[in-house]
Every structure is written in C-alpha cells, then in structure tokens.
C-alpha cells in the first residue's frame, strides 16, 4: 500500500473527518484514494481519537433514571413469563422486548462519550443485575435446566455424606471438580437455606464478580473506561451470557474465576519493580489452582491464554527480564495445575471430552467436503421452524459481530501499539512494540469466533461451537469495542449515532439469546417431550418423590433423559447412564419385546426398577433424544410405541409398582439374582394414586 504524503488544509480535514483524513491520510487529487479509504476502514493507520468521556468522573449522571427503566422492563418480563405459562402466543416476543428495553437505553448512554467512568460502572452493575433477575423470572422457585440437575445431585451427595468425590452417574466428571458445589454446600450449612436459594446467591455473586472484573481488566489493558464499558456490553451478546452462564453449573463460576486470573496477572504491570509484583504472582497462582479444581475446559483455556501472553511478553520490546520470568512462571503453573488435578482425581476428562470433540470435528470435515448435509438452521429436532423475526435477528447479530471484527481487528493491534499514528505493517520493527501482551492475545482469540460458527452448523458440534463462542467473546468484546469507540462513533457528540450503535448491540444480545434458547426461553403452558426445561413439571417431580418415600433411596433405576434427572435429585435414586456404565438401558426400554438381550442388559446393569413415561409416545424429543443420545436414540423419526414401553406388563417376573396414568414404574429385580429385595423406607406420606394432568389425556 502506498501512502501519499502531504498536508491537507484545515477545511479539507474537517470535510473528511470521518474518512481517510481523520485517520491520518491526505491526497493530492480531488477524488479520495480508494486504498486510503480501505485502510481507514480496516484501521491500518489512525490518529488518536477522543475515546474518553468528558463528564465529571465522580458523577452518577443518569444511572438512577436507567435503574427505574430497568425495573419497569422487569415487570413486563414477569408478565410475559406468566402469560407463557397460560399459553399466550405473545409472551415470548414480549419477553424479548423486555430484555431489549433493559439493555438498549443503558447501552446508548455508555457508548456516548458524555458519560463519566462512575456512571458507566453504575450502568454496567444495573444492567447486569436486571439481566440476572430475568433469569429468576424464568425459573423463580426451582432448578429447571438440564445441567443444573447434574450439579444439584452432587451438592446433595456432599450434604448427605459429608465428603467429596462420590460418584454421580448423571455427570461422572462433576464430583471431581467441586468448586461450585463446595461453596454452595458451605452456604447451605451456614445459613440453613435450600440448595436452590444458596445456589442463586452464589450465581448472583459470580455474575457481578464477572462483570466488574471484566470492566477493570478491559480498562487496564486499554487505558480507557469508555472502551472497557462498551466491551462489557458486547460481551453480554455472547450466546451463553443471559441464561447458560447463570445456570447452576461449574462453568458459571469458572468464567468469573478466569477473569479474576487475567486481572491479577495484568496487575503485575502496575508494579514498578519486579520484586513488588511477586505478591500478585502468588495471588494469581492461588486463583489458577482454584480454577483447576472448578472446571476443566475453562482451566485449559486459561492455560492457553497465559501461555500466549508469556510468548508475547518474551517477544515484546521493552519488557523487563523480571516481567518475562513472571509471565513464564504463571503460564507454567496454568499448564501444570489442571494436569496435576486431573491425575489426582482420576483423569476422567479425556474420555468425557474427546468423543464429543472428535464427533464435532468429523462432522465439520464432512461439511467442508460436502459429503453430508448440514443441520437445518432454525429448525428444531421436532421439525418446528423458528419464527421469521428470530431467524432474521440471529443472522443480523452474527453479521454485526463480523462487521465489528472486520473494522476492529487491525485497529485493535494499532491501538495496542506504542506508536498509534504509525502503520503496523511497515517497518517490521514496529511489530513488537505493543503495550499489553494480553490484549494482543485476545485480539488473536477472535479468530476462533468464525470457527465456532462452523461448528454450530453441525449436529454433534453445536455444543462445541457454543462453548468456543462464549470463550472467544472475551476477545470479540474488546475488538468490537475498539471499533465502536474509535471508528463507528469516534468523537461524535450526538445521540443519533450512539442510539444506532446501541440498537446494533441490542441486536447482538437478542441474537445470542435466540441462538442459545430460541422459542424455549420461557416455560410453556403444557408438557413437551424430552425438551429439558419445558419437560420439568409437577407430575414428574411428584413421581420421583414417591419413589423416595415408598421405595427408599439409592434404588437403581433405568429411565428416560428427563425422569432420571428428577429421580436423582428429588428421589435420591441411583440412575443408569451410558456415561457411567457404557451400557444404554434405553435400548431395553424401547425394544418391542423383552428378549434375552434386553434381559441381559438390565441384569448386567444391575437395574432394580424401570420407569416408563408414556408421554414419550406423544411426540418426538425436543432435544433430539429420549435417553442417552446413542445412535439408536437419534434414529427415531416417529414417536415411541406404547406397546414397546408397556411390554413389561406381560412378564410374570416383573411387578407393576406405580402407575399414575402416564408414568409407570416396573420392579424388574427378579429378572436376575444381582439384586436383593430392598427394605422399604419409612413411610412419610400417602401413596400417590393419580396426579392428574391439565393439558389433555393420553390417547
């Protein structure tokens, strides 16, 4: 690229302040150079922009007004959630509008340069709190999401047994990373609260810790409170932010701990002398070890970030020898800690993660080679097509993120350079002149975002893409924020541009929620087949509690995906899963006859009781599987047959223990001699005869 030297008149500089001249380019002709406009768009060169606010730094500004607006929007969200339970069609769009009403006004104020640092921080706290209340409105009295039951079972084991690492067949890896469960069980013992209430307190504290830590981290590596606050807004657009990362799951605590590790690591640069930074290194080490015992994937990602930072620190011109040694030390600890912990607890993550990763990579390879069809976008496993407005918003959100990355990737590298008015491409001596090595790494992390989109196009790789996307948003947030502050908004003092950019950020937020939750963001009026939160209802909960009251706890059950969650938590029963035993007992339940192979499968698995839910015959599974998700489970193109589920009735050595019209429990203990007759537990209630149903009878 050729740079035309020269000096433009003040009038021409003002005329082209939003074009090439604002970025340090001038030309001799009357027609602007195309290559200069392209360079200005991509951010190859730019002059310093006034990216900071101009208000009093100690002023709260309009934050009280926005707090009132958020409270009004939450009332609308609560009304929409209640309307969804009554079957109103307008509930879901209204709920999304309420979320947008919480976010958009505060986003416009944060993007505008007139807000002070304190006001920006207050607005981040207000929006974060309001969005967490949205999670409470969706599930106000109990856990309803799939992953929450997995960790709830682990907490129950810790509370009842008083020790760690008890087996959890729902998720065998969960008891081995007990950071979240330890904090929750301690709070339950100290306060007497229920697991649900204590879990909400822990999740609320973790969410607030995450956003405050991210603000301080982004401010530290950019030197700008405005860019830091905008980056926090963009981070909220991650598909996992609104709901998934506030589920009662170990990642919900691990992500804030990752942000704390990065902030503590960057705090070393505040110390003038190397020796003064060693207390910070010790604190960072403690956080790294705690993270390694909380979540495996997040600790691996932390190790990758710190290793990348150490490499950049060694390459950076001007870094002291002490800074390089400390960076290498922290990277080494980040690599060693999760490896040592996995060896201590039994190294289960390889068998748990690798099959999922291998399946996703295989489908992506088939997608690239065009040897197989992709997952139908916006179409559920039951064949339902998402509404048009959800499809268009999701595509618009992805397009806006890609546009922000296009205009912010190189601009962020220039912004991080020590010579901000100079080209990052020439001369090469400027390649190693940057201020923050972590910012350099986060910019490179954004390259994983397009990879996550590719994984989302496949069936097996969707979950991989969802996790990659959420982690890559740490880089996406800061890159897009630099583009917004230095290019799209710049030094403008008007509200029109700030409002337009806030609307774009709101689109990204809503698009992220739709791509993660879609139409199932609210609890529907009626039961849905194998649809996770839409399948958790009073009848299943009552049946699970009946098993504990009348059969005693710790009986070995075979059941479908939903009922095994309820049996494990509300019923405190032992359930059979392929993750634990490698045997899919769902094949014996769905088989047309109880033949020798099915009998052997139940006997070898030690099954004492089989729970059959006849509602599975009314539709295809909402999440694609009825049971464990094996190959046989995914091949269903029509609902299950009731004759297959009720085949146990004709077996003379099988007893029908429970029947409420929809759910039947069969005692299959006499199929083999591996089970001794159980002693019924102490009766604490009356037998359940019929639990009723409000959404129609089973045909």
From TrEMBL:
<feature type="transmembrane region" description="Helical">
    <location>
        <begin position="468"/>
        <end position="488"/>
    </location>
</feature>
<feature type="transmembrane region" description="Helical">
    <location>
        <begin position="90"/>
        <end position="111"/>
    </location>
</feature>
<feature type="transmembrane region" description="Helical">
    <location>
        <begin position="225"/>
        <end position="242"/>
    </location>
</feature>
<feature type="transmembrane region" description="Helical">
    <location>
        <begin position="327"/>
        <end position="346"/>
    </location>
</feature>
<feature type="region of interest" description="Disordered">
    <location>
        <begin position="675"/>
        <end position="699"/>
    </location>
</feature>
<protein>
    <recommendedName>
        <fullName>Transmembrane protein</fullName>
    </recommendedName>
</protein>
<feature type="transmembrane region" description="Helical">
    <location>
        <begin position="123"/>
        <end position="144"/>
    </location>
</feature>
<keyword id="KW-0472">Membrane</keyword>
<keyword id="KW-1133">Transmembrane helix</keyword>
<feature type="transmembrane region" description="Helical">
    <location>
        <begin position="434"/>
        <end position="456"/>
    </location>
</feature>
<feature type="transmembrane region" description="Helical">
    <location>
        <begin position="195"/>
        <end position="218"/>
    </location>
</feature>
<feature type="transmembrane region" description="Helical">
    <location>
        <begin position="65"/>
        <end position="84"/>
    </location>
</feature>
<feature type="transmembrane region" description="Helical">
    <location>
        <begin position="494"/>
        <end position="514"/>
    </location>
</feature>
<feature type="transmembrane region" description="Helical">
    <location>
        <begin position="392"/>
        <end position="414"/>
    </location>
</feature>
<keyword id="KW-0812">Transmembrane</keyword>
